[in-house]
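Record passed on underneath.
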Amino acid sequence: MTNSSIALADLGWSAHFMMQVDGHELEQFLPARLSQIHRNRIEALSPQGALTLTTKHQDSTGEFAVGDWVLVNPEAQIEHRLDRLTLLKRKAAGVEAKVQYIGANIDVLFITTSCNKDFNIARLERYLILARGAGIQPVIILTKADLASDPQDFEAKAQKLDQMMPILTLDARDTTQVDSLLDWWRPGQTAALLGSSGVGKTTLLNTLAGVEESTAGIREDDAKGRHTTTARGLYAIKDQRWLIDTPGMRELGLYDAATGVEAVFADVLELALQCKFSDCQHDEEPGCAIQGAIGTGELDPGRLKRWQKLEREERRNSETIAESRERRRKFAKHVRSVHVQKKILDGHGDR
């Protein structure tokens, strides 16, 4: 990042954030936007240029997301995080019940896949659930169109997910084609790139901003590019637009995404409301509207199975993470209680 100053409005500062601070706080603290998060430090952009920040508790960088707005004290510490306008999050990969933040204060999500073996409807549905659940406008980008014999076939399959869904089919290295993405977010707004490894996210970033991030070729066996982006970052694009690039995700576990599931599978839910029995399991029950739609070809049986799987997963992950948080809260309360008791006993011992 450069040390050149950037106006708050150009960084994405808006009335939503201004309403959270008063004049006294703005005299004491500097507003800044987080651009990269590391284990023990955080990079940020501000009207005073690029900053390297720490938190008051060195183990708490995981509480922040790239794109967050914070107030910074004179010691270059984060004093306070402002409430987010939007937030992309998922269940962290692995068995531990934790939430991982993908990015904050995002206006548009570019869901990126390629016109080859990487294309996967079930994965696209997951990405759409994240966007819809967060209230972020999704746009599907189909890359490597120049290498596909029939890119329109991939576009037609993606369009079946939502007839109103914006879909862009392009060659990520072609500046003229990639510049069409600029129509989807205005100066001062933020977009994010999300997709699996090797679908061309870094190439898109290079083409849009000229950032010299490394890229790698496509593997012959599975048509996937090699993983290149290793950390999330906020980058300046043309005319003060902002773009969050993210590493490729092997897993995309759902958390707190019930609203997104409902939005993406609205067609299935609408059919479910027409079932004869309110507790219909959509299997062999008489009067099942969903099975009726499958029988007539109106609904793909695979879509029903994916909806049922995602509903179960979302409910299980959300409950597990909530239980884990409650255990941590009770443990912290117990530790505080022990400290208080110790102080009381120490006080008695001094008498």
